[in-house]
Structure formats: structure tokens, C-alpha cells
Design brief:
Layout lengths: L1 H10 L6 H25 L26 H13 L7 H27 L6 H19 L11 H27 L3 H4 L1 H14 L2 H9 L7 H11 L1
Helix pairs in contact: 2-4, 2-6, 3-4, 4-6, 5-6
């Protein structure tokens, strides 16, 4: 009887610590940012026409007129704050994607802390992120105009994208929370796999892959191949 009670306690879902919840929220927020990007890619043909703003309401820099909001933030951070050289278009796009995922991860950490304190509906969380980021933070830093200068169609489309972000973030956090500390322990292995995948895309490894078949570069593949020939 005591053993059965101990098993029930071990299998019972436990609330994570604030640090554990925040780290899981960061991962969930990054996944939510990826889901939002997929939403915008899938609905690109239905996106409303952007509002043509007057010159005094646009971004102050001339080079920012052809940039997205995240690309402008990335360029200002690298060139203004870090005092690095000017970013090329390809580097600017990658830096903008990094800003997008970091911003989504930060909001995911906020969601995790709120989720452990009180009930937070995913739709309400997505709407709060939309209201705070698109309608407050971006205009305050002169990355976008204030909300009254945009059409209702643009606000509706952006809000739907943040609904997708909130739902994906909440779903990912629920999975990470119920799995307990396992995802955090597996994080080094996941990072190692990501580094290995990046190394496989480098020119030396591509050249090696062309010269040698992929299974021969792994011991397990060689063993399986010899066993099949035997």
C-alpha cells in the first residue's frame, strides 16, 4: 500500500519551480514564434495591403524604409548598440529572424510565470502580446506608427497571428510542463544534435559527403551494411 502511494506521488504532475517554469516558457515561446511565422507564410496571399504612411510617421532612417520591424531592431542593435559594421541583406534577414525568436521566447517566459500563478487563456495571452508589442513597444521605439494610423484589416490580421502564437506557446508549455525535468536534461543533447546538423551543412562536410556515402561515416551504418552482405 505504501509503495502504491509512493508511485502515485511520483507520477503526479508537479508544479515546476519559477526558474524551471521560466526556462520552459522560453522554449515554448520560441516554438510559438515558429508557429506564428508559419501562420504568416501560409496566409500570405490573404494578407491586407500595408498602409502607406506619410513621411513624418515612418521610421527615421532612410535604410529602414525597406526593412521589416525585426530587421530594423536587429540593425539598430548591431550597428548602433554593438558598433559593428553595416549588415548585408542576408545577415540582416538572419539577425531579424533571431530577434523574432528571442522576442517570442521572452514573452513565453512571461507566460510561464503567469501560468503558474493564475489561469491564463492562450487567446488572451496572444492578444496581450499583440497589444503590448505591436501597439506600444514598436511605436515607442519608432519602429512602427501608433495603432490609429493602420487599417482595421491590418490589426485583425496581426491579431490572428498572435492568436496562433499564444495557442502554440501555451500548447508547447503544457507539454514541457507535464514532462517534468526531462526536456531540460535533454537540452545539451539537442544542442549537440543542432551543432552536428550545422556542421553537416558546411562546405568540408558537403565535399566529404559527395566522396563517401553517408552510412559509411557512421560505425553503426558500417556494421549494418556488413551484416546485410553476410
Amino acid at each position: 500500500m505504501n509503495r502504491l502511494h509512493l508511485c502515485r506521488i511520483a507520477l503526479r504532475s508537479k508544479s515546476p519551480t519559477p526558474l524551471g517554469a521560466f526556462v520552459r516558457g522560453l522554449a515554448a515561446g520560441a516554438l510559438g514564434a515558429a508557429a506564428q511565422s508559419l501562420f504568416f507564410m501560409a496566409t500570405r496571399r490573404w494578407a491586407p495591403t500595408p498602409t502607406r504612411l506619410p513621411r513624418q510617421l515612418r521610421k527615421p532612417e532612410q535604410k529602414a524604409q525597406s526593412e521589416s520591424s525585426v530587421e530594423t531592431v536587429a540593425r539598430r542593435t548591431v550597428e548602433g548598440l554593438m558598433k559593428r559594421g553595416p549588415l548585408e541583406d542576408a545577415d540582416k534577414a538572419r539577425a531579424g529572424s533571431a530577434v523574432h525568436y528571442l522576442f517570442g521566447a521572452a514573452w513565453g517566459g512571461v507566460y510561464a510565470l503567469c501560468r503558474e500563478s493564475f489561469r491564463t487563456p492562450p487567446a488572451l495571452f496572444g492578444a496581450a502580446v499583440w497589444a503590448a508589442s505591436d501597439n506600444l513597444l514598436l511605436p515607442a521605439f519608432r519602429v512602427a506608427a501608433w495603432p490609429q494610423h493602420y487599417s482595421l484589416e491590418e490589426h485583425h490580421y496581426a491579431l490572428q497571428g498572435h492568436f496562433a502564437y499564444g495557442l502554440a506557446t501555451a500548447s508547447a508549455y503544457a507539454v514541457l510542463r507535464d514532462l517534468g525535468p526531462v526536456p531540460l536534461k535533454a537540452l545539451p543533447a539537442l544542442l549537440a544534435l543542432q551543432a552536428w546538423a550545422y556542421w553537416l551543412r558546411t562546405p568540408p562536410m558537403r565535399l566529404l559527403t559527395r566522396r563517401r556515402p553517408l552510412p559509411q561515416r557512421f560505425l553503426l551504418g558500417t556494421i549494418v551494411q556488413r551484416a546485410a552482405l553476410a
